[in-house]
């Protein structure tokens, strides 16, 4: 027994090892559990997520149809979800009991045109202005990224020259070492410098690749915005012409006929047959043909810096319980550079939010079980950051991708 204790002391020093077998077994079990738990904390990841409010919205926007005058709406020719062609009759407004009177002379026509010219296209003026602002911001961002890329390419040339120089020096020292002219220390120092140059080159190449990918993404976003701007501008001109024609055709009449300005699908009818309408009051919306549905997501300024482009997200449509219909997957393709205030969000999307929010656009993947309708509300499950569990437990000791400890 004394010999055993001497061996134990030689191995473990002054560490106390109980001689009772049960206690030793408990200690070993505790160590085993600690190792298993530590391993799980090290290899298991946890993704922090953020739930955001959103709606379904067509990528080409929606045409808002409002009443041209005060009166009674009659002969509504369409229903929610019905398809219409351009110039089809939508509804008729009978203004025979309206307080607005028209005089059939040139002065009256001129005054009426002046009044309506300022109002024509007001439904998409904000959209066109927003597209232009986004294009300006993207142009500035592309220029900034190109300038950064130029600097990185210049830096790469210098690193390539340094790498070639270190490679040549290492080759000379390696030959000299073989001939026993220099020591192994000299050779190892040269090898370390060479490896450092290789690592710098590799790291810089990765950064350059990411910059090029970002520039490509920005150019795609710019092209998409230019198409939307062109479409909105051309649609506005058509609407101006149609409105002018309607003004001339209906000024001297009691009945005003509203024609469809575009081919598409009717949605969100707000009035019923024989109901009273006021001038400028919203009646219905039209989704142009060829539109794809995107998710418009409202993101808090506190969290927007941690939401990344191309993140895969999960959408829970409020009208379709996910337990029965499943969920929709999507990918964030755009995040606005400036937040919209509460009033603008409500006027544009008819959604009430508590604070000014950034607008994120997510492309939606198909789900055959779900029929999407504009303005459907949803909850977006957005991933923010993935870390091993032990880093979350000791988060104050680690920094996230932005360099911030939390």
Automatic annotation (TrEMBL):
Record keyword Transmembrane helix present: yes
- TM region(s), chain numbering: 26-43
Q: Which domain of life is it from?
A: Bacteria
Which keywords does UniProt give here? Membrane, Transmembrane, Transmembrane helix
InterPro entries assigned to the protein according to its UniProt record, in alphabetical order: MFP (IPR050739)
Q: What is this protein called?
A: HlyD family efflux transporter periplasmic adaptor subunit
- What organism, scientifically named, is this protein from? Escherichia coli
